[in-house]
Structure formats: structure tokens, C-alpha cells
């Protein structure tokens, strides 16, 4: 059983789209999607610097467009799809719940609203690597933080104010390493509540379809069969924790044997190698990875 997954914010690196523009039709596709999101996706994916593509309003549409473009280049039908955080919008399009244009238009609104919400209070996120999960979660709660991403494989991301994160850094859980993340705010926490309202208004103009393949939700890792339900989950996801650990548990329960991570891949396949032992993985980083990915389907 093949799972195709789409990465979330932070996976982008300067110039990551450059080699993909050599593929027939891909530049035209990105140019069309640039009009949908109001950004020059080709420029941002090729010549823009790290600070430019770290901007939430840029990063999110860029990542979803890159994932969808690489999926088209791959041309493989999955048995199951999932996305991490903003990657869920790409997953929804791959599953047929949204069109690519609907997904990108919603992501444009999401990204701008989240960037605006992040500017209200100085917030951030810190990755916690290792340690006892119960102790890590207790320490996060003790400092008034939110476990914004529970990624499995010994990785949890805490989100909150910079003051809370500084206190957390000084009171790290035993056997855990803390790594501050270069993000604009505390995503998937209560600090993003204003963005939920904006995205909900935007979603009113979208009529989703029911997914044509198994589509997992970040909320609880469950397979969602209703397009309307999944769209509602996409809206609420903005201020709710990402349970990627639950998504991987469902993949294991569904019998997933192979995983392809869409462009810019690496993060989710890295987690899978530690949490889904025996599952074959390929991360799409350059077009040279397409052949190896297609081999997984044979």
C-alpha cells in the first residue's frame, strides 16, 4: 500500500524548485498557480533568499504548489494521502476533496491570516527532541505552552510566547534536547485563533468533494470520508495541534508498505524511518528522485 505525503512549513530551502523547472509543462503550471495566490512562485522557488521564503505568507503557498507540481510530475495514484500542517491542503487536492486551485486560494488566505495573527504577540516554537514523552508534555503544560506538533519518533514541538519558551529552555525535560525553530509565530496554538475566523469565511465559498482515496486528518490521524468534514478540519487545524504521530499510527494500521514524500521532501520520510520500520520511503528533492519513487509502486 502506497502513501503519498506532503511536508509542512519549514521544509523549503532557497532554490529548491530550480531543477524542477526543466520538466515539460511544470513552469507553465506554476505560472498559472502564481496568479491564483498572487505571488511569483517561480521566483520565490528559485532565486529568493532564505528570509524571503521563511515569510509565512510566501512559504505556505509555495510549499503547497511545489507538492502538487511534484505529484503531477510523479503521476502515481496513491492508496492513502496525508499532509503535515499546510501540507494537508496539498493532500486534500491529491485526494480530490479540493481542486488544486481551491486548495491554493484557501492557502493564500490562511497564510496571510496566520502572518497577521503572528504579528499580534511575540511568539515562537521550539522542537523537543528525545526525552520521555509524558515528562515532555508535562513540562510543556507547566510552562503554559502548547504541544503544537506531536510528530512521533521522539519529536514534539512546543509553541507559545517568547517569554514562555525562554523559561522552558531553562527548565528542559531530562534527556531532551531543545531546538528553537526559525518560524514567525506559534502556529497550531490559541495564538492563531484570529486566523481561524478568516479561513472559515474563505471556506464558505468552497464546495468540497468527498475524497476518492483514503485521506488522513492531522487532528486525530483518522481517515476522513466526507469532503465537508475535511474542509472543516482544515479550518480548525490552524489553531489546533498537529498529530502526525496519530497519522503514522493509522498508516501502520492501514498496512502502508511504501511512502513517497512530495517536494521538498525529507522531513516526513525521516520520521517514518524511525516510527514506521520496514516501510520503504523516497523523498522527492530533485527530479532525479522520480524514478526511485516510481519503483516503489511496482
Which features would summarize this protein structure in a list?
four-stranded antiparallel β-sheet; 45% helix; globular; alpha/beta; five-stranded parallel β-sheet; 298 residues
Q: What report would you give on this structure?
A:
This protein has 298 residues and is of the alpha/beta class. Helices cover 45% and strands 15% of the residues. Strands 7-2-1-8-9 form a five-stranded parallel sheet, sandwiched between helices. A four-stranded antiparallel sheet has the order 4-5-3-6. The radius of gyration is 18 Å and the shape is globular. The N and C termini lie close together (11 Å).
Alpha plus pi helix count: 13
Number of strands: 9
Span of the ends, CA to CA: 11 Å
**Major sheet strand order:** 7-2-1-8-9
CA-atom Rg in angstroms:
18 Å
Helicity level: 40-55%
Overall average residue pLDDT: 96
Low-confidence parts lasting 5 or more residues at pLDDT below 50?
none
**Major pleated sheet:** 5 strands, parallel
Secondary structural class? alpha/beta
Q: What general form does the structure show?
A: globular
What is the H-and-E element order? Answer: EHHHHEHHEHEEHEHEHHEHEH
What proportion of the residues form beta strands (DSSP E)? 15-25%
